[in-house]
Amino acid sequence: MAELFASGRSVDAVIALLALEALLLLALRARRGVGPAPADLLGSLAAGLFLLLALRAALAGAAWTWIAASLLAALAAHLYDLRRRWPRSGR
User: Fold this and answer.
1) Which residues contact residue 60 at a Cβ distance below 8 angstroms, ignoring those fewer than 6 apart?
2) How many other CB atoms are there within 10 angstroms of residue 70's CB atom?
3) How far apart (Å, rounded) are the C-alpha atoms in residues 76 and 4?
4) Residue-wise pLDDT tens for the chain (91 aa)?
5) What count of Cα atoms within 13 Å lies in the side-chain half-sphere of residue 77?
6) SS (H, E, C) 32-91
7) Helix or strand (DSSP H, E) at 27
8) Of 12, 39, 43, 58, which residue has the fewest beta carbons closer than 10 angstroms?
9) CA 11, CA 62: separation in Å to the nearest integer?
């Protein structure tokens, strides 16, 4: 069990579940017209994905540049998500 976490394979499983969640939500939206719009879903899931990639890189012993790049991408996705959700004045 320790090897599963130390190698980062546990993070791979969580990433697979995240992808499955995205597919299910997109299918629900396409079939029934309910759930978040794809653009709204993108920011939230992308931020989580990039955080998971940073964790995976750290567990696998990757260079700090990969970890930093993943964290920077997570920040960009988070800011995109905030911008989409922020109420716009004058509308």
Assistant:
1) 7, 8
2) 21
3) 29
4) 888 888 888 999 999 999 999 999 999 999 999 989 998 899 999 999 999 999 999 999 999 999 999 999 999 999 999 999 898 875 5
5) 20
6) HCCCCCHHHHHHHHHHHHHHHHHHHHHHHCCCHHHHHHHHHHHHHHHHHHHHHHCCCCCC
7) helix 9-32
8) 39
9) 14
37: its two tokens: 């719009």
- Sequence letter at residue 42: L
Q: Give the residue from 40, 15, 47 showing the smallest Cα distance to 25.
A: 40
Q: Which residue has the tokens 């004045």?
A: 89
What secondary structure letter does DSSP report for 2? Answer: H
Choose among 43, 69, 44: nearest CA to 58: 69
Residues 2, 23: Cα–Cα separation, whole Å: 30
pLDDT of res. 64: 97
